[in-house]
Structures are given as structure tokens and as C-alpha cells.
Amino acid sequence: MSGTRQVLVLAVDGCHSLNVFGPLEVFYGASIEVPGAYEVQLVGPSDGGIVRTDTGVPLGVAPLPEPPPRHDTLVVAGGAGMVDGVDDDVLDWVARASRRARRTASICTGAFLLAAAEVLDGRPAVTHWAYCAELQRRFERVAVDPDPVFINDGDVWTSAGSTAGIDLALALVEQDLGPRVAVATARRLVMFLKRPGGQSQFSRALSAQVAARPELRDLQEWINGHLDEDLSIPVLAERAAMSDRSFTRAFLREVGQTPAAYVEGLRIEHARVLLEDGARSLNAVARAVGFTSQEVLRRAFHRRLGVSPSAYRDRFGGHALPEADRSPP
Predict the structure, then answer these.
(1) Among the listed residues 159, 131, 132, 163, the one whose alpha carbon sits nearest the alpha carbon of residue 146
(2) Inter-CA distances, 233 with 9, 20, 100, 266, Å
(3) 312 φ, ψ to 5°?
(4) CA triplet 83, 84, 85: central angle to 5 degrees?
(5) For residue 172, what are the contacts with CB-CB under 8 A and spacing of at least 6?
(6) DSSP 3-state assignment of 243?
(7) Which residues lie across from 51 on neighbouring strands?
């Protein structure tokens, strides 16, 4: 390790407590694994040394240091206070502090503050999925991507919701101290999964609409319990007591996906659970969720998640895959 890394965590009135304490706990845990790895200071714009979270809990903060010191990492915590906007002097401080940091990160809606300070101009960024459209509307020069858990664009990082801020902080630790320390820190926090930035904020398959027709709604429930069976259009249409063409049109209209896309999405979701759970080979996973082969599973994973099943298992599973099961990344 090349010395202690100085981290400034910015909190303003209306911040969300987990946005503040999630990253703090990660850096603290990493410093237990590697003594002296991080020195973290909580700072904020407050004459009395107190800012209040969105739930009204008071936080003691140090005043914003002037001028902003050279430091390793600036972390901007999110919350309602960021969406509502902050004073110009805070934006000015963030802009200057970001230039004097090796890297800058926002947690959840902290992206609004970075965007207002022009730190995100011309960069890809993410925030909580419920605020992505608003972030893009207000800041046209930011390339908002609503899907990832977090985005690393060189020296600027942004994350989705509050727990995604923990994932981001673990990724910072991994960048600094390596995967062994990051995994040990995650275990210390009893986090069983350390999600990479490319993982989606939410399940696309499970976010599909629930059909209005009782027969289609019942069919959706039935599909979920029979993923290892033949779920072709003729089979599903017959179960819904409809012609193939009428079934396909009705399903797309009411569920928002074609039957094939819906089935594949559910199979991927169940495959993810099995891979995270460990103990099964890729061939066994493919069979259990209804894919005809390991190769079909691999192609579907790449299409939906942008990674191979073996790469996903390496990041999320408790056990490594047998070498024979490894597919190309």
C-alpha cells in the first residue's frame, strides 16, 4: 500500500443516511483489513457543524475545507437535498474539490449535485432509477444510463440507489487494494454478493407487466413454475385456450414483451439465482431453467447481461466453476 488515502464524504441537509454511512462502513472495514488504508472525513456546509438527514437525524460534520485540499477521493452522498438543489457556494466547492481529488464519486441522487457542478458534463452517469429521467431532463450534457448499478468513467464514478453506493465503495476498495481485501470487506459487512457496475438496477424480467386477463395472468404464474418444460408458443397458447396468433398479440399487448422474451427473461433470472447459490455446473443450470444446452445459456446471458455465466458465477457465486464448465467471457 502506498500510504493512507484521504477520503472526503460530503453531506448536506436532506441527505440520506445510508448514502453517507454505507461508504463510510466500507472504507472503515477496508481499514481494518489493511490498517491505515483510508482516513475518512465527513464534511458539510453548516455553521453549527450539523446537517440533518432526510429523516431528520442530525449528523456532525466538519466545515468545508478552504481551499479544498489535495485528497484521494471525494464522495457526494445523495438524498432529497440533492434533487431539490443546493447553494451556489456548495456547487463551487464541489467543482474545485473534484479537481483536487484523484477521483470523484456520487451516491444515488448525489449525481444531481455533480451534474449541477458540471463534473458530469460529457460523461455517462447513473442515479436511482426513479430519478434518471429527471436527471437527463435537467442536465442535457450528461449521458444518463438508467440501467447499471454504478458507472466508472475514469476518475468519476456514479451509483444508483443507496445500497449501490456500497457496491461502488467496494469497487473503489478493489481498485485500490485488490479483490481479496474487497471481498473480505464485503464479508465483514455480511454482504454475500459484490455486484459489478454492469449489473442491472432491477430485474427486467420481473419488471414486466402483469396481464389484465385472468387466463394470461394465471399463465404467467404457471410459466414461473415450469421453466424446465417446453414453453413454445403453441404450448402456451393452448394452455391459455387461444390461437397462436391471438395469444402472441394479447401477450405482447398486456405484458409488454413477446412470450419468447418473457420466458427467456425468467429463465435468465432463475439461472442467476442458481449460479449465485453455487453447487451446480453450467449444464445442470441450463437444464434446470429450460435452456437446451450450456451454449444457449451462454448466448442468452451475453445478450441480456453482457457477461458469460462463468464470469457472473465468479463475481457472485460462493464457489468457482469447474474448469470444464467455463465459457469464454
Answers:
(1) 132
(2) 53, 49, 58, 16
(3) -60, -45
(4) 90
(5) 26, 73, 103, 105, 157
(6) coil
(7) 59
Give phi and psi for 60, each to the nearest 5.
-80, 125
Candidate list 77, 108, 135, 305, residue with the active-site label? 108
Q: Specify the long-range contacts of residues 173-176, CB closer than 8 Å, at least 24 apart.
A: 173/26, 173/27, 173/30, 176/5, 176/30, 176/37
Q: Is 132 a catalytic residue?
A: no
CA–CA gap between residue 294 and residue 326 (Å, rounded): 10
**Digit-coded pLDDT (tens) for 34-75:** 999 999 999 999 877 999 999 999 999 999 999 999 999 999
Please name which of 135, 165, 151 lies closest in space to residue 16, comparing C-alpha atoms.
165
* Closest C-alpha among 289, 280, 269 to residue 228: 289
pTM for the model = 0.67
- CA 167 to CA 59: how far, in whole Å? 23
CA atoms of 123 and 300, how far apart (whole Å): 29
Residue 58 parent element (H or E)? strand 58-60
pLDDT at 193 over 90: no
CA 186 to chain centre: 15
| Residue 40: how many other CB atoms lie within 10 Å | 17
Helices 179-188 & 162-177 angle (0-180, nearest 10): 140
